[in-house]
Amino acid sequence: NTMLSASPASQQQIHPAPSITSDPRYRAARRLISSGRSADGAIEMLATLVEEARSKYGEDSVEAAAVYYEYGNSLFRAVEKRKDDEKVIMRDASTAKANEKGGMTDEELALELMENAFAIYDQYHDEAVDKDGNEKEDGEASRTVAVDTSLVPWVEEQLPRVLGGIGDVLTALSRHPDAVDAYTRKAQHLDDALRDLSERKGNKDGEEIGLDFLRALRILCEANILVAEALLRCPLGQDCVLSETGDVLVEAKELVERNDSW
Description:
Layout: E1 4-5, H1 24-35, H2 39-57, H3 62-85, H4 93-102, H5 106-128, H6 152-172, H7 176-201, E2 209-210, H8 211-233, E3 240-241, E4 248-250, H9 252-261
Parallel strand pairs: 1-2
Antiparallel strand pairs: 3-4
Helix pairs in contact: 1-2, 1-3, 2-3, 3-5, 3-6, 5-6, 6-7, 7-8, 8-9
């Protein structure tokens, strides 16, 4: 019989992360967002961190990307909370001024920040990992300055998380075909991670299945549900078309069939 085992804490691998994620303000902001207590405080801290990360590490750095996503996520969660509570969420002056100047809603700004974070993570991953999925040796990356490949595992964990956040914002903006695309790419990343985990574990019939494998499988199933829900929100009788490229993601006649497959 297949056995179920929990990996001891001592055996759990902790991946190196960008140094800015150790900043007390970054950690405090994430706790505030996850608890749902106060997105306002998180927005203020992350707005400051965005400027510091850009100045210290560069606006296209992985460190800046980490803050971009959390900043965008805090803005989006604040909007969602405001909708739920029907209260006005006070934002810091710099954020309000930026939105007024750019003519963007908080949701649109959140989407832009999240998409910037994804683009940076995706480029970093392409430059740090070869076509077979192996980390390149320092100095082998395509950039003039060598890429720190030690961040690859952490970035691989962030890619599906960011795509999920992008999908959530697109759903709120009623851009359902685009949300389908984001959630589908999230599911693909999670599926790849699950396959890698299974290969590393060497799982075969009769061998132990770790809780980490089951947890990854559950997260993949949840991502597939998001894809199905986004497909259901697409207008019936119409092709599912991406707004920016005009590409047809799912034809109208295939929409029901594709949904059933998920």
